[in-house]
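Example record

One chain of 391 residues, shown exactly as stored in the release files.
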Amino acid sequence: MNAEHDWITTPVTADLLRGFLDLERTAHGLLPHRLPARARRQIPDDQLAMAEAQPSGVRLAFRTRATAIELDTLPTKRAYRGLPAPADGVYDLLVDGRLAAQATVAGGNVRMIDMAAQSVELREGPAGTARFTDLPAGDKDVEIWLPHTEITELIALRTDAPVEPAPDSGRRVWLHHGSSISHGSNTAHPTAIWPALAAAQGGVELVNLGFGGSALLDPFTARAMRDTPADLISLKIGINVVNTDAMRLRAFTPAVHGFLDTIREGHPTTPLLVVSPILCPVQEDTPGPLAPDFDGGTLRFKATGDPAERAAGRLTLNIIRDALARIVKQRAADDPNLHHLDGRDLYGETDYAELPLPDEVHPDPAGHRRIAENFARLAFGGGGPFTTETG
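Predicted structure tokens for this chain:
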């Protein structure tokens, strides 16, 4: 703690947080989750358990005159055996909606992942502090976006002026579900992930259920979305189903129907946009599973399936896109608020030529910006399914 200020400690409570579905009390503090406890009890693997606890899109939101802010946290970081340690996750501080400062927290726990052995080792470490100083004087709305790549236990919030929860913005709530690209893979800081950028452009409040490696049409995720208040809903479906080789076309089609049926139980008329995968050349016509390739010391991915098995129902991105377009067309006859968007309109061949995928699967920060710009134009823009225009 910096002793230069007369600090006020404010308990971190639900009314200071946005973008979460559940809060867990731990031995250290408060842990935001992006799936509720009931769903977490049904999680079948460590991948999703880690992903949903990484607070992509979760932020503190409050009003204050403070010019100095400290946030004590215990991060749990992810590292891969044989690769360089990742950079510390970034905390983005926004003042009145604009990025004003950034900080990191050193130390913390480390989850060491051995992809070859399919094992995880937890190495415990100390808590730390994200510090923000020299902020503008006067009343202001402050948001602190938590690192999208680190599980973050919130321990203490200190300021040099009183804090009160941010007032209701009155903006529509956008509930989004997707894969690691929606989670924010390969972006450097949390407000640079494409859903956050698109939400800012669309003037909406984001609840991001992008789960790295885990957009697999799980029924508990559909139930969580069904039970979450939202004005707008989008689903980015497909690439995880292909790259995990999780199902064949026979299972995929009713799984999509079931996912949509469940969401519609809680949101019968909410605008619902189904988005197929962006362009990913290694998976366009080659089935999964996807495998890591460490040649050259840089993590890249390659598809290992046999394209000849497509005739037997093995899935590729092109097959997924055709299936989603067909499903949405069929259902939209009775559901005028259901819409479809081809993911290649967000990132296609022209985009790939200009902004190639560094690891063959995930876009770089410029790619995230491109996806956000295209989504904002096609979804929030005039004539889009999320537009506010009226006839």
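Notes: The chain has ten helices and 21 strands.
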